[in-house]
Amino acid sequence: MTDWRGEAARDNARWCDLMCRAHGIRGTFTDLAWTSPVRTPPFYPDAVTLSPGATAADLLPHLDAGSGASIKDSFATLDPPGFDVLFEAQWIHRDAPEPATTNWQVVRDEAALAEWERACGVRDLFLPPLLTEATIVHAPGLGSGAVLTATGPAVGVSNVFGDWAGVLAAAAELFPGRPLVGYESDPAPALRHGFTTVGPLRVWIRG
Questions:
Q1: Which of 91, 124, 159, 203 sees the fewest Cβ atoms within 10 Å?
Q2: Residue 1's pLDDT band (boundaries 50, 70, 90)?
Q3: Dist CA 44 CA 127 (whole Å)
Q4: Where along the chain do the CATH 3.40.630 domains lie?
Q5: What top-level branch of life does the organism fall under (predicted)?
Q6: Distance of alpha carbon 142 from alpha carbon 29, whole angstroms
Q7: In this structure, are residues 37 and 29 in contact, taking their beta carbons and an 8 Å threshold?
Q8: pLDDT recorded at residue 100
Q9: Could you give the 3-state DSSP secondary structure of residue 34?
Q10: In whole numbers, what is the pLDDT of the chain averaged over residues?
Q11: Global confidence as pTM
Q12: Fold for domain 93-197?
């Protein structure tokens, strides 16, 4: 039986690593965690656990653990000293969506990425190097969009805004037959589109 929670955590760690590499930051993977030795871009953690056996002692020596440091506790097992819970969420999984065709578009260049980022509501975070390894998609008119990361047996779904049905159709067309994983603080919209929750996670931050 596939450990979809573990697959979701690994895909998310790879996405965090890709985001950091786009910003010139090199993280490190071990069996226990992904960590960054310097502070990561906004909204991205400095560490992601990859095993429920990971401890704070396995993580803190490998990151800038000062004020503002954050840890994605993928299995909700940590209690790192000096950290507070920033938010809690649920990992989600869905079997492969039914085959579909869609009018959603893939972001191919820097200008289109800048337009997508404005629609997503952030600035100077999504940089062109992301396009080499992630698939960034949107509906015509940029009313909806998402990031798809096909780093393992499942396709990671993140940064969703707008229409979940369109996200599923785009994933089905671009990655046919692949199950989907991700995480959501409010999983209700994803659950209405066939996802199930597969375990909690916490994000910790140091004040």
A1: 124
A2: confident
A3: 14
A4: 93-197
A5: Bacteria
A6: 34
A7: no
A8: 87
A9: strand
A10: 97
A11: 0.96
A12: Aminopeptidase (3.40.630)
